[in-house]
Design brief:
The protein has eight helices and no strands. It is mainly α.
Length: 205
């Protein structure tokens, strides 16, 4: 069940599954992000796009940033779970790397506008920042586990699995951010390049 804010309204850092109206709000927000961007979109516009009144929207979300936070949560939840699953899968490290990269590329292809908004807003919208940091840590932990399985040592130095995983995570984020602006072909090219870097880092290429 979603938590409630101080004024008693229900809020959704993570949307409730099966709530059709809540999903319509998030779908409308994603469409507006793609069409006019975060700054220009309004609560009224989101409500209209979802076919709801402003009052109905406020039953689910407190504000525009809260809607976007819910949208980011919905979008990255699958990435968090799938990255974690791949990291714990008994498959060979190279296969695990390829699986994580394939799933990450697919998410950016389908929801690039949300991923870019999360990157842009993670410092100015605390809820988004917390979600983005959490997602990054899950991704870093998955990369670290795969690197260790590939024989990269643990430790605190620059050649240790954790240090390399952190660098790989933020390299992938920034690379995918710019590539998603250019279109699917560039995203495919950059994804292949990031995959090569990761495989070489793990001494799998």
């Amino acid at each position: 069940m979603a938590a409630r804010s101080a004024d008693g309204r229900r809020r959704s850092d993570t949307p409730r599954k099966g709530d059709v109206r809540e999903q319509r709000i998030l779908d409308a927000a994603e469409a507006l992000l793609a069409e006019i961007g975060f700054d220009a979109m309004t609560v009224g516009g989101i409500a209209e796009g979802a076919g709801l009144s402003r009052g109905s929207l406020y039953f689910y979300f407190r504000s525009k940033p809260d809607v976007v936070s819910g949208l980011v949560a919905r979008t990255v939840a699958a990435l968090q779970q799938k990255s974690n699953d791949a990291a714990h899968d008994p498959a060979e490290p190279r296969e695990a790397v390829e699986t994580v990269m394939s799933r990450t590329r697919a998410l950016w292809q389908e929801h690039g506008v949300v991923m870019r908004a999360a990157t842009d807003l993670n410092r100015s919208v605390p809820e988004v920042g917390a979600l983005w940091s959490q997602t990054a840590e899950v991704f870093i932990a998955a990369i670290t586990r795969i690197l260790r399985r590939a024989g990269v040592p643990e430790g605190d130095g620059p050649q240790a699995a954790g240090s390399l995983a952190r660098a790989l995570c933020w390299m992938i984020e920034r690379s995918f951010y710019h590539a998603s602006l250019a279109g699917p072909d560039e995203l495919e090219r950059v994804s292949a390049a990031c995959l090569e870097v990761w495989l070489r880092t793990a001494r799998l290429a």
